[in-house]
Each structure stands twice: as structure tokens, then as C-alpha cells.
Task: inverse folding
């Protein structure tokens, strides 16, 4: 899909706050609110905007601890990898999962209320996925930056 300058401006703005009204967005983009609504609908329908969500303070909902996990597998057989991917995607505590290059095969971002909950999750991971060879855990001491914003240049 070709994105023009207006689309790119809208993408940057809705990534900052997807709850903005078309009227509010029109204050920043030289388009009418109805034109903005049409463009946003097109961006959603074409899959450029995959989904919209709220960013919640983990402490406010009892999930103050963030774990960064490096996971190694025994074999990269397609069936075993698909099983592990499916398992990871189904876990509510796994906030993000990346298949990566390097020493680890996956890097996970896991949120949990405490170390015991995290330990139980990792116990299930190992017992339900025999292809997992090992994992290492880092506990986030503080969050310097958190987000999923993709910078969209105004000009291509």
C-alpha cells in the first residue's frame, strides 16, 4: 500500500494516542475530520494498522515485575518450533516473544505479579515443551522506555 504524507502523519499521531478523535487529529493534519476517518478506516482494513490498544501501568494492575528471558531450543525442527510458538502465544504472562538470531533462539518479555508466578510459568514451559534446552532470566530493575511505536518518516 502506498502511503502519502497525510497517511504518515496520521500513523505517527495515532501511535502516540489512538484514542484521539478525528476532530483532534484534524488540528494536526491538513484534512477534514471525515477525510481522516476514511483514511484511518483504509489503514485498518489494509492491515497497516494491525490493532489498537491501551498502555496500562503494570504496577497499577498488580504486574510490577518484568522478566526478560533468553530461550534456547534443542532442535529447530519446524513441527517443534511451531508447537513452541503456539504455546508462547497462548500464555497471558508472555507479553512479547521474538524469534532471534544469536546465542538465544527466542527472547521473551514476561510480566508477572511476583517471582513465584514467573517460576511456575517457566516450570510449565520446560515440562510442556521438551524441545526447550535452557533459558536465562534477567529481571528489569526499572523501565527506561516502553513502547511499540514505529517511527514513520513523513517522506519516503
Result:
Amino acid at each position: 500500500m502506498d502511503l502519502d504524507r497525510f497517511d504518515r502523519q496520521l500513523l505517527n499521531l495515532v501511535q502516540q494516542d489512538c484514542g484521539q478523535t478525528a476532530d483532534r487529529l484534524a488540528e494536526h493534519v491538513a484534512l477534514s475530520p471525515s477525510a481522516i476517518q476514511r483514511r484511518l478506516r483504509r489503514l485498518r482494513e489494509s492491515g497497516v494498522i494491525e490493532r489498537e490498544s491501551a498502555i496500562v501501568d503494570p504496577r497499577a494492575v498488580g504486574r510490577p515485575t518484568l522478566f526478560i528471558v533468553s530461550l534456547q531450543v534443542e532442535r529447530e525442527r519446524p513441527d517443534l518450533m511451531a508447537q513452541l510458538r503456539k504455546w508462547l502465544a497462548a500464555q497471558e504472562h508472555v507479553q512479547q516473544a521474538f524469534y532471534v538470531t544469536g546465542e538465544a533462539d527466542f527472547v521473551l518479555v514476561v510480566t508477572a505479579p511476583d517471582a513465584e508466578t514467573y517460576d511456575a510459568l517457566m516450570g510449565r514451559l520446560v515440562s510442556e515443551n521438551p524441545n526447550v534446552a535452557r533459558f536465562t532470566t534477567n529481571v528489569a530493575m526499572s523501565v527506561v522506555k516502553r513502547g511499540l511505536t514505529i517511527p514513520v518518516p513523513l517522506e519516503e
